[in-house]
Protein 1
Amino acid sequence: MPAVETRNLEKHFGDVKAVDGVGLLSSEEEFLVLLGPSGCGKTTLLRMIAGLEKPSAGDVFIGEKLVTHLPPRARGIAMVFQSYALYPHMTVFKNIAFPLKAMGMPKEEMKKKVEWSANMLGILHLLQRKPRELSGGERQRVALARALVREPNVFLLDEPLSNLDAKLRATAREELYRFQKDVAITTIYVTHDQVEAMGMGDRIAVMNAGRVCQLGKPEEVYSDPADTFVASFLGSPPMNLVEFEDRIAGFRPESFLPQQMHEGGGELLSLTFHVSRVENLGADRLVYGKLGERFNLSPVIANLPTSFTNYKIETSQTYDFAVPRNNIKFFNSQTGLREEPIPL
Ligand SMILES: Nc1ncnc2c1ncn2[C@@H]1O[C@H](COP(=O)(O)OP(=O)(O)OP(=O)(O)O)[C@@H](O)[C@H]1O
Ligand SMILES: [Mg+2]
């Protein structure tokens, strides 16, 4: 299945640069996630790849073919929108068959295709129902089946799970991931949810203000962020960022632990930690507080696994914490970009 490429893609709406020079190259059959906050240009970028939005500048290639000036139907793509709409008066069968009918496909062939697609999504038993007789997750699968039925070369999915509740989302995420691996169709998936991105993406393109800040595997963007935006967008709670001289030092809350809890031989940086609040979240214990004078009383968060239950932490107390030195990332305090380490 062909890869998708954008070169210097831009879209301006009046003064707003919704997409500001994006160059992306997906691999074949890849699950590529566009992740970023609301308004950063994800939908606009996806719509330009689909051919639904005309770029102000730049080009789109699908399978090395220049498609910038081709209409959506000539691009071999299928898109599922943020607010996918099923036809309420039609059965699931008719909903899925709709794009094939529009193409004038013979009845027998159409039936086979619909059943194949419904089978891939595990909704064969629902074909005679109407959308209102389905759960949110089932409707979701109908929308995906309808997109799949045309056997696209590329799937473009814009927050397709956004109207499911948290529990259903987790199941749907798992299903969608397996489905994408089964059909092996190159997929570009838009979300502002980092859990979805980390859990499903082969790679993640982290976007901010119309640009891609970093493109990499989930573990790369998480542990090796290219700038402070990526560092603080990923992770819950996000990376601690502490100003020091002309740098910002960043370390993840889960690597910031009581001195004696660190295992292994790595060299540690000791830090004084004045605790102001403790939050027990079941599997994790989040500890909020401030570092000592040397780091200007910067606010930081520690994330302790609750397996450390014998380590008592109380508010308004001061503790000796530490971070492994090789877990500390450095950023330029002006530009926010990654920098060489300095001694702390
Ligand atoms: N048709 C339009 N006319 C004017 N401005 C637009 C239009 N479409 C989008 N924008 C602006 O472009 C920017 C990017 O919008 P876009 O919909 O791509 O964001 P998004 O990343 O998909 O956000 P969300 O996560 O909220 O869906 C926003 O500032 C938005 O207001
Ligand atoms: Mg959007």
Protein 2
Amino acid sequence: MTELESIKNRVVVVGAGAVGACCAAYLQRDGNDVTIFDPDGFGRGCSEGTVGIFATNIIAPASSADGVRAMLAAARNPDLDTLMINKEFLPEFLPWLASFVATSGPLAFARGNEALKEAQRLSMPALREILDEDTFAENMQERGWIAVYETEENFQAAEADRKMRRKHGVALKELDAQQLREIEPSLPDGLQFATLYPNEFHTANVHKLVSAIGEVALRNGATLKEQLVDSIEPQKDGTFRVRAGGEEVIADKVVIAAGAYSAKFAEELGSPVLHCAERGYGVTFEGADVGLNSPVTLTKHRCVIAPMEAGFHVISSGEFAPIDTLPDERHQERLIAIALEMYPELAGRNVTRWSGWRSTMPDGLPVIDESPVHKGVFYAFGHSHLGLTQAGITGAVISALASGRKPAMDNTPFKVDRFSLTPAY
Ligand SMILES: Cc1cc2nc3c(=O)[nH]c(=O)nc-3n(C[C@H](O)[C@H](O)[C@H](O)COP(=O)(O)OP(=O)(O)OC[C@H]3O[C@@H](n4cnc5c(N)ncnc54)[C@H](O)[C@@H]3O)c2cc1C
């Protein structure tokens, strides 16, 4: 060790993705002395590869009846698909899968629905609370989000989902081909129907946004150390020895916000979780602007296209696999082919390929909780497909819990120990 630094009354945040940055910003604002560790700095990790959608209209957990059907089909399917389970990993994955199926039961699913709805409702206000108006306006645009359908049959098949969202107060508008063309003239012909979610915010540069959130923490006195945390050791006096890159610090509280890498720390700290890494893939046609105004989900291809500052971005896939599995480039080739079919003018552009690990719990809800084993250890991970969206409310709740205040959102559905094989709440 090169340095032994005592930081009594300080909080260490492990991870500076969207979630870690928001936790740090809230904790520092609330009077803590925060040190953030991340070898890549702010806004890299999985956060960097998102399509930048603040997807508050998603209020149903993935473990719906349709979700279960798709997951069980993926478990049997040997071919490349947008939803995949690494077959060698299947035996190890079974407890997760069993819990996923268990949470699709009517009672558990309804509870998950309510919990997700509340997290989504509070997500944008919580983000606005830590960013000043100018920074928010500079980084966030209320562009809406569109899901497009090739056939009336597919559009009608999604009616039950629209009905559920309407029932819960989600703003949406059904569009025919003409209305869609007026809003998104760049989309190719043949798209017959669409659903517009008009109130969704979008950021065209996720790294810049998360860095701006991290900057709030730094301006208020937090420190960023670009090092990987190797271990967190609880001490007899209730503090924690955090070892990182040959350095060590003593902290009173530790927040684990390391995305898909959080489960390792939870296990070492006595709270093993039924968590799985879920890989997503993306490609960016560098500098390309095809004239798209908002993010668009192509329901047939199960992928999302979006106009980003870096270029035209296409993302897809949920690949459940051990976290050290190498990426399968065929996913990116598929995305490139879809993009070129839609927009032939993209041919010849440089393409950046990306893949990253989501952190996914069987019920699709994040873990936002204090450890039941070690007082002073807080968990903020498991946000799956919605970590950018829910980063703000996660930071707000973690900071309230760490300060002994009642959080703005009841964290009972987000407990770290909610899974044995069925949810405990
Ligand atoms: C293709 C794709 C598109 C997506 N699009 C959206 C979207 O539009 N909207 C949305 O809401 N969500 C989206 N998501 C989900 C979202 O990306 C994640 O939920 C979110 O990034 C999770 O943020 P995080 O901060 O928890 O994790 P991450 O962003 O992964 O950050 C974790 C950080 O922890 C660091 N770390 C890991 N181990 C250590 C260690 N030992 N010491 C120190 N640091 C460590 C890593 O370097 C990393 O920077 C998408 C995901 C994918 C894959």
